[in-house]
Every structure is written in structure tokens, then in C-alpha cells.
Amino acid sequence: MAYNCIVLVKQVPDTAHLSGKTMKEDGTVNRAALPAIFNPEDLNALEMALQVKDRHGGQVTVLTMGPPRAAEVLREALFRGADRVILLTDRKFAGSDTLATSYALKCAVERTGDYDLVFCGRQAIDGDTAQVGPQVAEKLGLPQITYAESILALQDREIVVQRAFPLGKETVKCALPCLLTVISSANQPRPPSARRMMACKLAATPLEYPALLKQWPEFETAEALDHYLTERDQKIPIWTAADIGADEEKLGLDGSPTKVWKVEYVVLETSESKQVPPTLEGVSGLVKELIQGHIL
Amino acid sequence: MNKNREVWVFIEQEAGQIAAVSLELLSKGRELAERLGSRVCALLCGHGIAHLAEEAIYHGADLVLLADHPDLALYRSLPYARVAIDLVQARRPYIFLLGATPNGRDLAPRVASAVRAGLTADCTDLQIGDFRQKGRVYSDLLYQIRPAFGGNVIATIVNPEMHPQLATVREGVMRLGAPDRTRRGEIETIEPQFDGRDLVLQIVKREMQPPCCNLTSASIIVAGGAGMGSKENFQLIHELAQTLGGEVGASRAAVDAGFIAAEHQVGQTGVTVRPRLYIACGISGTVQHRAGMDQSSKIIAINSDPAAPIFQIAHYKIVGDLNQVIPWMIRAYHENAK
Fold first, then answer.
1. B201 contacts A178? CB cut-off 8 A
2. For site-directed labelling of A101, which of A21, A92, A256, B187 has its Cα 20 to 30 A away?
């Protein structure tokens, strides 16, 4: 039996490599100055979906919500084996917290058609909240299997999944459809394949056409380029709030109950501080002092 | 407008024991409720756990909502969410706190989505205060304070209108008060109603290990970072910890490099600790790491890089080679300890 899988992914600033230069004066992160990457655990989610397809057949659809630039992660998903990718982009989505985001994703998932499994990374490295997966599951009325490490069995309309936590493992079985959030220990994501990169090298969203027209003067108009890409199945569709039939009040800042009020640098301070010479005598003196002070 | 200002705490339990973080949240909840002039309500779910209700009261609950049902015996998202969602919708608490444990982080977003409320993950501090926006003043909101962007900034989040104000809170960051066995409270039994859709997921097997290390209650922690260089060299950390009678901690970099298991990780994505003495060896001191240990009473930092940020919060700074300094420390302890 073949299964249709939807993978929800996010393009994130590479927060593991932040420096002073990437912060603005007001203490917020200057996203534009950061390299944007495919959220690491979303790659594990994509890999798990691709393995379902390899084993059972079906289609893997990758959805992302973000600015036009997020098309980059969709191309990467195509290179790694996704069949179909969709960019959800609209100014109306800007400022969404996890509740508004999960509402938009829920509307988009419903619009993609029939599905059996939804995969997400456990959490994104820019917020580390791990909220969007369970919230999308709730809005779709699906059971959720968080911290998914491996699919032990998938047969007919039932899945058996091993979940992993810092202190143990749990095996659960669940009826389809359901949503899984995948952790980094689940698998080693396959690299982009050279064959797929050749096959999908033109993939672009209509928002990227102006740049492409400069690059390829042989296309005189956007229509000509659109026709060319559409014929070759290389057009990445864009869905707006209207396309997914979303209620605007539930999107963006208006649809977000949480407000970021203050953002501040962590202030470092020590009341007293002592330089200890890096010698046996220095270290010995410190140890004695700590013993006398009942700290050791 | 929400006139009801109750502070709810989800009580997580496993094998008849309440998670430490839930007790910490009862202590914190008590403080918030006193500030708000309201009461603390504990939501206790499980099977055969009625005896835990008293303990929740001793730690600060005024009311325990007790849902004791065979389908709640082990934590599962759907039946637990059903109980919490039904109760929240019926009674609309002002604040609802859960531990940022794997279960708490699984349950809270499901509840927040269903009741359309704001949720902040992984808070490290909670306060009550006012918030002004577009000419309106919202008094006595919950300031939900958490590290963001890999711990590089601290964000204060508020949820002015769509209540309850839901937050998950890191383990170990709130002080655990001593139980007061003279406290009295009310216990209200809840009869959960499940339908087939709540029970579509079954647990086939569950293997949970007891914690391998107890970092949150350790009084001495010796922690190693990427600067240890290799898994073999990380052995020095184990030796020093053993000598001093401490526990072994690690930075995220050391865990990512495979020097040690993830349960030893201290920091924003690991555990938060506040020992009497924290010895940071070869740890540069990213904000994400410091967020998990900067409340330690005394901090010794050993690093070959004099510019390492860890020195900014260290009480004792040793700029030098770990491979010399750690053995010296072990030797000095043997020579001087009684």
C-alpha cells in the first residue's frame, strides 16, 4: 500500500553560528546577516518520509511557510527526493507566532489533498519551541507522535513508531492518518543527489522570475518563462492566505496571542573574580581556599 | 475580561512519583497566586494516584483536580489533552504552567491550540507585571521570560488577551519550597469522558531508565566542553568529578562531539543547575551554556583562551592547559582534603 506523506519544513537562521555582527543595536537578530539553512530536524523528517516512499511507494509533498527566499529549502527538498513542493508566502503571515503558524499550515495541508502521514522536525533551531508540530496535529484533528526515532512497522492503516527521550524509549502504535515529529537521532538525511539536481535545477517560484529573466535573456517575458517551467514541472507554486482559504484574523500578528515585549542581551556579571596562576602552586592554593571555605 | 485569576499547574507523575519540576511549579504558582490574590489549582492525571493529591497540597495547591482513570495510567497525548482541554474550556484559568519535560512539551501545544491561547516554551523566569500596547494597559500579566535565538538573547513574552497564559517552564530553574504538611486544600474528582478518537494510540512498550546522573541536585559539578579535545581526554572530567564527589556536566559542543551522553548537558537545551561549585573545563561559555549554570554559587573556569566568555562570569579564572591544571587539581585535593 502506498502512502502520501506531507513534510512541513522551515528555513531558519543558523543560530549555532551567531556573532556580534549578526545582532542589531536593539538586541534583535539581524536575520538578513545570518546564513539561512534547512532546519536540521526537518531534514530528518524529510528523510523519514522519503524512506516511507522508498519502501511503500506514494508521494512526498514538502510545504514551507516563509518569505520568498524560503524557496531555497524547497529546491533542496527537491534535490533530496521530494516529489512536490509548495511555498506558503504572504505578507499576511508575517509576525505569526506558533498558533498562527500552525493555523496557516493546517489550512495548507488540507489544501494539498489526501494524505496519510504528516512529518515535522521536532523543533526549529531559531525558537526551540517544538510547538508547531503538536498544534498542527490538533488543528487537523490528528493524533501526534512526538520524538519519533524510527518507524518499526507500517501496514495497512496502522503505524508502529519508536519514540526516544533523554531517559528512555517508548513504542506506540497508532491508526493513520497521524502526525510525527522527528528527532535528530532518527536517521542520517540523504544528501542532495546529482541526478535530482540536474533534473530540478530550474525549479523556481514566480517570485523569482524577475531575477531569472536577467540571468536568462533568452526568455523575453515572464509568461514565456512560466510556460517553460510549467511544461517541465519546474514551477514551484506559491500559495497565499487567500489560496488556502485562511481566515485572516487568525494569521500574522492579529492571530498571534503571544507578543514579544522585550528582547535583551544577557548581562554578564560577577561580584568578585580572581585570577589563579596556571601553576601547581596556584591551583593548590585555590583548592586549599575552597576546602577551608567548605565549598569543597 | 477574565475575572478568574487562578494559576493552574499540571502535575506530571510517573510510577507514583511527582516530577520535581511540577513541585517547583507549585512553589512558583503559590507566589504568583499570592501576588494576584487568587488560588493555585493542580491538575493531577493518572491511575491509582489519588494519594499524590495531598502532596500537591503540601507543596502549594489550594485545589487539586484529580482525574484518576485507567486510560490515563501512562502519559498519552490524546487522553491527557482531552482532560486538560475540557477543564480549561469550562473554567478558563488565568495562568496554566507545565514543566518543559518531553511530556509537558507534548501536551501544552495541543491544549493551547485547542483552546486558542498563547503558549511560551521553556521559560526560565516568570513574573507578574503590567503591559501597555496601543494605549491600553493590561495589568498583572504574566511575563514569560525565556532565552531565544540559541540563547543569545533573553525575550520577555506576554499574552495580553487570549487566556489562559500558558507556559512550559524549564526543570530546575524555580526554587523548590519545602512541603508544608499542615496545609489543607480541596480535592475535586474529575470523571473524564473519552471517545474512540482519544484512544487511537496505544503504548506497546515503554522502557524508561532512572536518571543516570542527578545534575539538578548536585552540589559540585565538573563540566567539560569542546576544549577537552577528545572522548579519551574527557576522562579527566570524570576523574576530577569523582575525586571531588561531584557530578559530570557538559556543554552542548561536547555532547555534539560525542564526548559524553546528552543527559549530561547543561544549558538552554540541557538542564539548568545551581550547584555550590561549578568547574567549567574547556568550555567557551556560549550564552546558551551560561543560561544553564550562571546561578552557581562559585564558578571556576579553566580555559586556554583568555578571551573565552566563560571568564566573564567566573569567580576563579585559570588561563592554562587543562591537561596540566586538572591533574594538579586532583593532586592538590588529595594532598589537602581531610
1. yes
2. A21
